[in-house]
Amino acid sequence: MELAQVRLLVTDFAACYRFYAEVLGLKPQSGATDGPYEKFSPATGSAGIALQDRAMMAEVLDELGDSADGHRSLVVLRVDDLDTYCEQLASRGATLLHGPSPMTDRMRVAHLKDPEGNLVELQEWLLLRG
Fold first, then answer.
1. CB neighbour class for 93 (10 Å; exposed up to 12, middle 13-18, buried from 19)
2. Within 10 Å of residue 117's Cβ, how many Cβ atoms?
3. How does residue 98 score in pLDDT terms, banded at 50, 70 and 90?
4. Residue 80: which H helix or E strand, with range?
5. Cα→Cα distances 38→22, 26, 45, 126, 128, Å
6. 116 and 12 in contact (C-beta within 8 Å)?
7. Domain named VOC: which ranges (predicted)?
8. What are the tens digits of pLDDT across the range 56-82?
């Protein structure tokens, strides 16, 4: 078994597409800016984050027709230099909710939200820095 992707069901596909591509800097697979589906990949690793239009998925599972309420997901991305990456995100229009700050003695984190309110955690693993 292999994790292929984490898929987020979104209502404003175009805004979320721009966030994951332009703000976070992930590489889109096909360039489908208006959806209804797109996978984004980081520079390294094989798993990715995908967006899918909530209305399209609601055609398959009726219960998904309602808007999401509350935090239902947390996307976690590891970066090598959290401070620099957060500065880059801010220059591209992102607003940090928290951090960068220590979470444990082995990890620093920062948090932000995508346009749909999904939480994104950025992690810097301190043990990898030596």
1. exposed
2. 13
3. very high
4. none
5. 14, 11, 17, 32, 31
6. yes
7. 2-125
8. 888 877 766 666 666 667 788 989 999
If one counts every other C-beta atom within 10 angstroms of the C-beta of residue 111, the result is 16
3-state secondary structure of 119: strand
Per the listing, tokens 């935090």 go with 71
pLDDT at 14: 97
* Sheet containing strand 74-78, strands side by side: 74-78, 119-125, 107-113, 98-104
111 or 66, higher pLDDT: 111
| 81, two tokens | 């230099």
pTM above 0.85, yes or no: no
The Cβ of residue 11 has, within 10 Å, a number of other Cβ atoms equal to 13
Question: DSSP letters of 12-43?
Answer: -HHHHHHIIIIIS-PEESS--TT-SEEEEE-S
Residue 122 CA from chain centroid, whole number: 9
Taking the C-alpha atoms of residue 102 and residue 123, their distance in angstroms, rounded to an integer, is 10
Cis peptide before 28 (omega within 30 of 0): no
